[in-house]
């Protein structure tokens, strides 16, 4: 089938520090995986190796039962059956939209090309745009056509290289959902490279966080957010509250916010960093039972919720608390803080 | 292969220059007269290049980016001087004012025929620049002039430098204008030396100095190119720009364009017309004229075809690869252009006589000479055109199942086609005008318009020469006109 297996990928440019240091990635057939990482982490290098534009120093790339890259093997890009959607679309400016989409349909006869092209245009919601030229389309439309062009030859794998970067956020959400739907409709395996954690969590079935040329964690979005492998991953995929804690037995840890229940029993660790999400903290009355106390220092209001920054007594760095619904506090006000749910403990 | 071909004459030069041992060659080069020639050649080149940059960039900007009345027509008119051979321009100015002979006259004539070499690539580059960048600069508080100086001009640098290089190479290798203006440069000295004696060494040694100057020039141009990528960045595909209103500068801009066109196009044509009417006594051999024109078209088309074919791979490699090998390849292609036509011709005669005698004084040899001489024209055009196609399109095409050569055929070449066609048209024009190599290599009995013109002028019969000059200019004007109309 179409599952992607990347194993032990290493790559360095010239004599400089390696960009990839044994990167591993497995994407099941038909899944949409996001490769998430800060700029310079090697995610684009990985994408270009999978696509066949770059040679890896070591490691293998397998798609289904085909070995694409490996020791002594390098299938050229045109024989990999991998579609790419580059940043900003990169449509061929000299070809009409229809001829852009049909570009990869080489073996097919005229009628078949026409049928597939129309099907693809419909799939991305731009039926009837075939006769336009690329410069007559908006940025979002160009990106949709780029996706249609990549999907038209029925590739086994589609690589998307930060495809929503250049678009405004209102357009992004809609396009993301449409891209997801189009990918699922064709059944292609897909890898989306991005540095935007919201995009990764909301679009992908599977998110691989890359740091310094290695995958730090690969999980479903919920697991990644709820049970990050370490504090760095936690901070990269979302806002995190990090508190020093001491294990008390019975699966709780004592922190500046009081005793916090742990998600997994500590295996021998006595002290460590306790990790909570801002939405696990609640503002309460200052005299409420078992609550820690602090002072509100700042409020960021987002409409659907707000981020309240609170300085906790007995803890140096302020913590963020996500508050849904109407706000009842002001900066400078004293407040109580309570923890709900379970926390992670990292050595 | 193409580059090797261009290097052939260099090999000949080395053999010839060292024929009598390095010491003798050094004596020739180290002579005081050589230093004089060096100063004169470099001085002339610097002045002409500077003047061409001013004319070419100003005309390109005015015709492409501003709301100049009749911009398209001006743009076409500004390419027409390409159709005027340097010797015709020199002749026109001399017949008007004989005192112009010397440095001033040579600089004037050469500038007015070669500024389109700057105008054309700069105009093409201006059309390729994303107007959003200029809009961004305007929004950052820059006025139109500062926007031009800080945003537009730096991006025009590769095009302007490429054009300036062509002008410099043109000046260094020009023979017709400097001969008529009696201004001694390397080419004239080499020609005199070839004609004066059977000892080929002095001429070859002087040619070597000329080649060294060319290599220095090409290297200097390559340095200005730098590391910056010049494919457009930014979302999607560019929209056509909105022309800049000229406001109260409009009359001045019109006056400037008018003056440039008047001295570069109207003046030589007027002079020619005068001679055509004045020479009513001369016999008009219409049959001979038509036959010569047909032969000229044929040989120029063959020359342009071969040159473009050879330039295509070199231009693509020069644009896509930044390695040392690619740089060397491109520079090798430029080597031919600074060699005076007569040197290239003699080199080819030398090879043909020794290794391919049946080709001697046959058409293929002449076509080869054109290819060696004008490869740089076509390579520069191809390279600039390929740079307009962003490399990411190659990646996309590869991922859609195209082999590298298919990518070249279906994506790179179609995108670069307008620029490549412009290069081919330009090559066609310069082939038609070529004189010294044609004089030596043409098959016995065949005349081109240029050689007939030269013969008649040499015999002092300006009126008899005028019809050939007129035909040459008319024929060369057609591709020049198409060049000016073509839009990337």
TrEMBL record, chain A:
<dbReference type="InterPro" id="IPR013611">
    <property type="entry name" value="Transp-assoc_OB_typ2"/>
</dbReference>
<dbReference type="InterPro" id="IPR003439">
    <property type="entry name" value="ABC_transporter-like_ATP-bd"/>
</dbReference>
<dbReference type="InterPro" id="IPR027417">
    <property type="entry name" value="P-loop_NTPase"/>
</dbReference>
<dbReference type="InterPro" id="IPR008995">
    <property type="entry name" value="Mo/tungstate-bd_C_term_dom"/>
</dbReference>
<dbReference type="Pfam" id="PF00005">
    <property type="entry name" value="ABC_tran"/>
</dbReference>
<keyword id="KW-0997">Cell inner membrane</keyword>
<protein>
    <recommendedName>
        <fullName>ABC-type quaternary amine transporter</fullName>
        <ecNumber>7.6.2.9</ecNumber>
    </recommendedName>
</protein>
<keyword id="KW-0408">Iron</keyword>
<dbReference type="Pfam" id="PF08402">
    <property type="entry name" value="TOBE_2"/>
</dbReference>
<dbReference type="InterPro" id="IPR017871">
    <property type="entry name" value="ABC_transporter-like_CS"/>
</dbReference>
<keyword id="KW-0067">ATP-binding</keyword>
<keyword id="KW-1003">Cell membrane</keyword>
<dbReference type="GO" id="GO:0005524">
    <property type="term" value="F:ATP binding"/>
</dbReference>
<keyword id="KW-0406">Ion transport</keyword>
<dbReference type="InterPro" id="IPR015853">
    <property type="entry name" value="ABC_transpr_FbpC"/>
</dbReference>
<keyword id="KW-1278">Translocase</keyword>
<keyword id="KW-0410">Iron transport</keyword>
<dbReference type="InterPro" id="IPR003593">
    <property type="entry name" value="AAA+_ATPase"/>
</dbReference>
<keyword id="KW-0472">Membrane</keyword>
<dbReference type="InterPro" id="IPR050093">
    <property type="entry name" value="ABC_SmlMolc_Importer"/>
</dbReference>
<dbReference type="GO" id="GO:0015418">
    <property type="term" value="F:ABC-type quaternary ammonium compound transporting activity"/>
</dbReference>
<dbReference type="GO" id="GO:0015408">
    <property type="term" value="F:ABC-type ferric iron transporter activity"/>
</dbReference>
<dbReference type="GO" id="GO:0043190">
    <property type="term" value="C:ATP-binding cassette (ABC) transporter complex"/>
</dbReference>
<dbReference type="GO" id="GO:0016887">
    <property type="term" value="F:ATP hydrolysis activity"/>
</dbReference>
<keyword id="KW-0813">Transport</keyword>
<keyword id="KW-0547">Nucleotide-binding</keyword>
<feature type="domain" description="ABC transporter">
    <location>
        <begin position="4"/>
        <end position="237"/>
    </location>
</feature>
